[in-house]
Structures are given as structure tokens and as C-alpha cells.
Write a structure and sequence with these properties.
5-stranded mixed sheet, 9 strands, alpha/beta, Neutral Protease, domain 2
Length: 382
């Protein structure tokens, strides 16, 4: 019992150690943003970092849609795709109108008109559908060309070959275009662009929560001022996306919805983002970031991180160990009860033998019934 208790303590210490060391490890996060929520990245040099929607001019030549692809026209959006994957496209088409209405309401003005969405079977096919002067990044599963109102998405993530969540990815890329429609060509911080798209697509909720929870717990949140150029380290990129999405959520809280609309309008009118957010929220970025961090510390604890990643197996081992302890305890209780019962029976037999020996004449031999032991219990033979 003492050994098992020590084992449980050791496992909890190990869990904490894993949690801390995981922050220092370069992981392969699921990337989102203009490159789509299912894309993956390794540690990259600064020039290879995930880009915002590619900067292209509106007069860039876009390849024609191949004749073998099927096209559906929804009025404000045309979506082209291989006929063989029609079933995967249907949910995107069914929810498209809701996406447009939701984003128009979010930005307080009509957005998303004359949009073209092209669905490819692979990254290689997606690249043939893109402008030759601006191919999608090699790690991208989705990309948005805002000036062209063009969205490209691959059905299979190029690095992992996993199926892309098509609805989330398309909504993510449409959010980029909608934001561009809402503010025009005005500059926006990288974290704000990605944060809007992440928040609106609702992608990877538990993964983002775990990343944010661990970063908050271990004090490794990245200053927002550093997020206009995302970090090169794999795990830091994941934290950067999680922070961007959550800070935008903080700005979009129900009580702050009018302020967010004012922010968008001020940027559209030509005001610099930093001045626009200070005027709209009555607080500068430094104070808003402090308030957001306080909000994060209240909302997130270590539980999300315990439910994902390296901690999960530790919890399983702890649960199994606790079950073993309880089972051993029950077995000991049963054995103790059996020992008492056997001692009681032995005492009765000994008492009867003593009485018979005292009462019987000297020339009479006392015969006692034979007994046997079976499975740890005494049985009298009749």
C-alpha cells in the first residue's frame, strides 16, 4: 500500500514535469489562418512563416476553372469542385448563406460579394488553380486572395495527408475576405487578421484552449506586439494562433460588440489601427492586453491541458492504480473475514473434542469426525 501511494505521488510529479517540458519542445501544431486550419508546419525560418492572405493586385491573371470540375452558383459565391467529392461539398453550400449573414452582422456592413471558391483534391492541384505569380505556401491547405475574392482549399492537408475540415477551412478563408471587404486596403496587425478568422471559424477549440491554458499557467504568453510577425518555433506558432483567436474573442464580447463595430469603421475611414482601437475601446493596447490576460487567468486553469496531449496517459495510469488499490483493499477485507470464520470453527471443534474427552469413560475411545481444508476453509466430513 505504501509503495502504491508513492507511485501515485510520482505520477503526479511526472505530470507536472511533462507539462512544463512540453512548453519548451518544438511541436508540430495544426496551423490555421490564411493557410487553413488543417495545415501543419515544422520549425521554419522567418521568410517561410505562414503568410497573411497573399498580397496580389486585383488585375492578376487567374487560371480558368478546369472543364472537368463542377460549379455551383449561389449568386454571391461560385464554388467549383471535382464531381466525385460532391457529398463533401454539400454541407459547405448549405451553410454558405449563414456564413455570409453572420460575417455581415459581425462587421456591420455587407461583405462577400462575387466570391469564387475552388476546391482541389491535393495541394498540387490547388497550386494549378492559383495565380502563377502567387502560388499557395507549400504547407497550406487553404488560402484567401482577398483583392481577387478568391479562395482555394485542398481536401487533403499537404504535410499530414489528413482530410481537411472543409467547412471550417472555407469559413476561415471567407472571414479573411470579409474583413478585407469591411476595412478596405487599410493595414491590420497580423494577430488581428488571424484572430478574426480563427474566432469566426471556431476551429480546434480544445487544442487552442489547451495551448492557451499551458502558456498562461507557465507564464509564456507572447506579447501581442510580437505577433505582427509570428514566431519561428513550432509550439510558439501554435500559442500565437491561440492568443490571436482569444484576444479577438475578448474584443468581440457581447458587451463590447458596439465597440468592435466602431473599431472596424474607424479603420475603414483611414485611422491607424492602434489609434482606432484606443478610441473605440477607450483604452490603449497595453491596458487591453493586461485586461485580456486577467480574463485568461480566470477562464483557463490547468484542466484543459490535462485533458489533452501528454497528460492523458498519466491520468489513465493514475485511474488504473487507484482501481488496483481499491481491489486489493477489498481482497484483504475478504481474507480477514474468512480468517475469523475459520478461527471460530476451529474453536468450536476444539471445544467439542474437549467436552467429549472429559465425559467419555476411560475405556471408550473418542472418535471425532474428519475434517479437510479446501480453498483456505475447513470442512467437516459426514
Amino acid at each position: 500500500m505504501k509503495f502504491l501511494r508513492k507511485l501515485l505521488v510520482l505520477l503526479f510529479v511526472l505530470a507536472c514535469t511533462i507539462g512544463g517540458s512540453s512548453l519548451a519542445q518544438a511541436q508540430t501544431p495544426q496551423m490555421s489562418g490564411a493557410i487553413g486550419p488543417s495545415a501543419q508546419t515544422q520549425t521554419q525560418a522567418p521568410e517561410q512563416q505562414p503568410l497573411d492572405t497573399p498580397r496580389v493586385k486585383s488585375d492578376v491573371v487567374v487560371p480558368e476553372v478546369p472543364a472537368e470540375m463542377e460549379t455551383r452558383n449561389l449568386g454571391w459565391m461560385r464554388i467549383s469542385y471535382p464531381p466525385a467529392v460532391r457529398e463533401r461539398i454539400e454541407p459547405v453550400i448549405a451553410g454558405a448563406e449563414h456564413v455570409k449573414e453572420s460575417l455581415s452582422a459581425r462587421f456591420g456592413q455587407p461583405v462577400l460579394s462575387n466570391v469564387e471558391v475552388r476546391i482541389a483534391r491535393s495541394w498540387e492541384e490547388m497550386a494549378t488553380l492559383a495565380p502563377a505569380v502567387a502560388p499557395p505556401p507549400r504547407y497550406a491547405s487553404g488560402v484567401a486572395y482577398s483583392p481577387l475574392h478568391l479562395v482555394l482549399v485542398t481536401l487533403v492537408a499537404p504535410r499530414t495527408y489528413e482530410a481537411v475540415n472543409l467547412e471550417e477551412t472555407v469559413r476561415h478563408e471567407l472571414s479573411h475576405i470579409a474583413l478585407s471587404d469591411a476595412v478596405g486596403e487599410e493595414h491590420l496587425p497580423r494577430w488581428f487578421q488571424e484572430g478574426v478568422a480563427i474566432h469566426e471559424s471556431g476551429e480546434l477549440g480544445m487544442t487552442r484552449a489547451s495551448d492557451l491554458s499551458q502558456a498562461s499557467l507557465w507564464g509564456t504568453l507572447i506579447p501581442l506586439s510580437d505577433l505582427d510577425r509570428f514566431p519561428a518555433d513550432g509550439y510558439a506558432v501554435s500559442v500565437a494562433y491561440a492568443e490571436s483567436g482569444d484576444f479577438v474573442r475578448f474584443l468581440m464580447r457581447e458587451e463590447d460588440a458596439p465597440r468592435f463595430l466602431r473599431l472596424v469603421q474607424r479603420v475603414r475611414d483611414g485611422q491607424r489601427f492602434e489609434a482606432a482601437i484606443a478610441d473605440a475601446y477607450g483604452s490603449d493596447m497595453r491596458k487591453l492586453e493586461y485586461q485580456w490576460k486577467q480574463d485568461v487567468s480566470r477562464r483557463y486553469s490547468f484542466w484543459p491541458s490535462l485533458l489533452t496531449g501528454s497528460f492523458l496517459w498519466v491520468l489513465v495510469v493514475v485511474a488504473l492504480s487507484w482501481g488496483y488499490i481499491k481491489r486489493r483493499r477489498r481482497q484483504k477485507q475478504i481474507m480477514a473475514r474468512w480468517a475469523k470464520e475459520e478461527a471460530y470453527e476451529d474453536a468450536l471443534i476444539a471445544a467439542r473434542r474437549a467436552v467429549l474427552e472429559q465425559e467419555a469413560p476411560a475405556h471408550v475411545q473418542v472418535v471425532t469426525l474428519p475434517v479437510v481444508q479446501h480453498e483456505g476453509r475447513t470442512h467437516t466430513l459426514h
